[in-house]
Amino acid sequence: MFGRPGSRLVAGANRQRCFSSSSRRSADFTHVVIGAGAVGLAVARQLSARPKTQTLLIERHSTVGTETSSRNSEVIHAGLYYGHNSLKTKLCLEGKRMMYDLCEKQGIRYMNCGKWIVAQNDEQWQALVDVFYFARSIGVPVHYALQKELDSEPDVSAKAGALVSSSTGIVDSHGLMQYLEGAFLDNGGDVVFNTQVTGISKTYAGYVIETVDGEGRQQEPITTETLINSAGLQAVNISNMLLPKTRQLTPHYAKGTYYSYSAPMPKPKRLVYPAPIPGHGGLGTHLTLDLSDPPRVRFGPDVEWVDDPTDYTPNQSRMEEAINDIQSYLPGIDRDAIEVDYCGIRPKLGKNSATAGENFQDFYIEHEEGYDGFVNLLAIESPGLTSSLAIGRHVDQKLYGNE
Question: The domain at 12-68+174-249+360-400 falls in which architecture?
Answer without folding.
Answer: 3-Layer(bba) Sandwich (3.50)
